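sorry to bug you again but im stuck and you know this stuff better than me. below you get a single protein, a line of residues and a line of whole numbers that encode the local backbone shape. mainly i need to know what kind of three dimensional shape the backbone takes. anything you notice is useful, everything is just below:

***
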Amino acid sequence: MFLLNKIKVYAFVGPSGTGKSYRAQMVASEKQIDFIIDDGLLIKENEIVAGNSAKKAPTKIETVKHALFLSDEEKQEINKALKKYKPDKILILGTSDGMVEKIAENLGLPKISETIYIQDVATEQEMETARRIRVTEGKHVIPVPTFEIKKDFSGYLLDPLQIFKSKGKGQKPYISEKSIIRPTFSYLGNFTISDSVFRQIVEHLAIKSPAIHKILKTRVENYGDGTSIYMEVMIVYGYNVAEELKAFKQKAKKEIENLTAMNVVTMEVVAKSLYMPKEEI
């Protein structure tokens, strides 16, 4: 039986906005740690295995609550994952010694055996640059690839960030994939996208498709995790209906997600009728 109190716990501590998440994988790699707890998430190497990002919370107060795992439901989810994966080491990120100690306590983990501070791995100039970006651009980093969090961050502005660093001659290179997000409580504030915007994008693409003669009906429903689109069209006779509709759906989904940062949860395109072009005499 796996016991949580057998896990060796490390901490990575630094003030908010100084680049902890940016450097988390580097610190974990140097200490041969495969698991990271950061802002409400349990991360195994480059994969989120449990938790919900505190960066999705609507306010800073809620962010702190999520990051500390104050709810029983959040604790249970992380503990279940830890028992499943059985890590021998784990790295907890936090803004203070008190915060990382509280996270370990709330999750039933042993006391922290070693603490690494941001000053140990970053220069004052690097930390100042990170602070400036946080304040002026509202950018936060999650130490996993963008494809890993995209579905969970519909409506957030996401940017991929890939880093390749050499630690020195004879040392194993450090490769890190991360995602930059702008949370809802950043200086940008909340933003909303009208259903008509999605409708206009998909109808514009339909008009440009040579296989679609006419749009008969479009319905858009916007949810918290993305948008659902239903469309009825008239197809031009002579085209392979199944292939053309599949290609159109793929193109429309990609375009909408690129332009709006919103996930397309479902997209249904139905061919309701055929258009028979008049033969030229």
User: Anything to note?
Assistant: The chain has two domains: 4-182, 195-275. The chain is about 35% helix and 30% strand. Residues 209 and 247 are 10 Å apart (CA to CA).
